[in-house]
Amino acid sequence: MQSRHNAATQQSLLHIEAEWQGLSETWRPWGFWVREYGPLPIGAYDVDFQAVPRRVWFRDRAGLRPENVWKWMRLVAAQTLAPTARTGDQFPIGQTAFAPYAGSDYYYLEVLWAGRSGTGWRVEPGPDERIIIKNELWIA
């Protein structure tokens, strides 16, 4: 089970990075956070933005790197108290997340690149290095 989770984590990170690379320069944030959460109940269609993730990564021009979860939580606190990190409809820093569905092989995966550019999916780890998108749960 752990190796399947590791494969799903790697595939999620690769998918998120490919989504970011595929954005036009106009819409691509200069960096993005990736949050990994614990199991979600079957049927959940998003993660709680204020929940504490298990792990986080940050990606910018220097590459993808693990970060301290509390760096992410400080950003959440700052956004809750004084939401200033947003410029119009575009977030200068992307926000992405993934989590397994409890008792299932499926995962929840979301990307939010700007106020009107994001998607949430139910996905499944594929046999190669790519995830299989089962269905879209929401589009922003």
Describe what this molecule looks like in 3D:
Helices cover 24% and strands 39% of the residues. The chain is α+β, with helices and mostly antiparallel strands and 140 residues long. It has one domain (2-139). A 7-stranded mixed sheet has the order 3-2-1-4-5-6-7. A hairpin with a 2-residue loop joins β5 (107-114) and β6 (117-125). The mean pLDDT is 86.
Average pLDDT level: 86
Q: Over all CA atoms, what is the radius of gyration?
A: 14 Å
Q: Estimate what percentage of residues fall within beta strands.
A: 35-45%
Can you list the strand order of the major beta sheet?
3-2-1-4-5-6-7
Q: Give helix and strand order, one letter per element, not per position.
A: HEEEHEEEE
**Main β-sheet, in a few words?**
7 strands, mixed
Approximately how much helix is present in the residues? Answer: 10-25%
Overall 3D geometry? globular
Count of strand segments? 7
Indicate how many domains the architecture comprises: 1
Kindly, what is the distance between the CA atoms of the first and last residues, rounded to a whole number of angstroms? 33 Å
Number of helices: 2
**Structural class, from secondary structure content?**
alpha+beta
Low-confidence stretches: none
